[in-house]
């Protein structure tokens, strides 16, 4: 885990890698819980029998937004700013779901700090370039920019 003493040290890291998270296995239970939360019950996500029969993956696949929603979990693994009193997820840019994630797959996230700008009062708005990798696949599951706020 990268540790920054304050937002000035964090700002000085612009253009550099934040790191790579640990692997997380995407389970059917996670997919089902996400479907319940979002109301997205398409068979390709939740019906294991139909997926085994009709899907080219022979299993269900994770919702794209489920994969993206792992970003905050992964970010907590990768870095901290000691002086920050509060942080907020502020949005995403340029999200692309470039490859499906079959259930049972393992994913992880690479993060690079792209930009940091001042945010009043006593804070910054940062943009991270994210790449969600599927173990054993050359094509990523998702690429996106995540915007966050942090305040001292």
> What is the CA-based Rg, rounded?
17 Å
Could you list the spans in which at least 5 consecutive residues all have pLDDT below 50?
none
Strand content is 35-45%
Q: State the distance separating the first and last CA atoms.
A: 20 Å
3D architecture notes:
This protein has 152 residues and is of the alpha+beta class. The protein has six helices and eight strands. Strands 2, 3, 5, 6, 7 and 8 form a six-stranded antiparallel beta sheet that branches. Strands 1-4 form a two-stranded parallel ribbon. The model has no long low-confidence stretch (mean pLDDT 97).
What is shown here, in short?
By secondary structure, the protein is α+β, with helices and mostly antiparallel strands. It is 27% helix and 39% strand.
């Amino acid at each position: 885990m990268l540790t920054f003493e304050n937002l000035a040290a964090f700002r000085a890291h612009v253009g550099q890698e934040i790191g790579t998270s640990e692997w997380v296995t995407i389970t059917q239970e996670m997919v089902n819980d996400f479907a319940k939360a979002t109301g997205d019950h398409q068979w390709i996500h939740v019906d294991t029998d139909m997926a085994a029969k009709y899907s080219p993956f022979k299993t269900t696949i994770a919702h794209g937004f489920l994969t993206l929603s792992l970003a905050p979990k992964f970010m907590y693994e990768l870095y901290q700013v000691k002086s920050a009193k509060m942080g907020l997820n502020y949005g995403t840019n340029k999200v692309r779901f470039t490859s499906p994630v079959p259930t049972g797959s393992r994913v992880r996230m690479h993060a690079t700090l792209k930009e940091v700008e001042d945010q009043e009062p006593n804070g910054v708005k940062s943009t991270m370039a994210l790449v969600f990798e599927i173990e054993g696949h050359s094509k990523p599951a998702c690429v996106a920019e995540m915007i966050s706020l942090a305040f001292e």
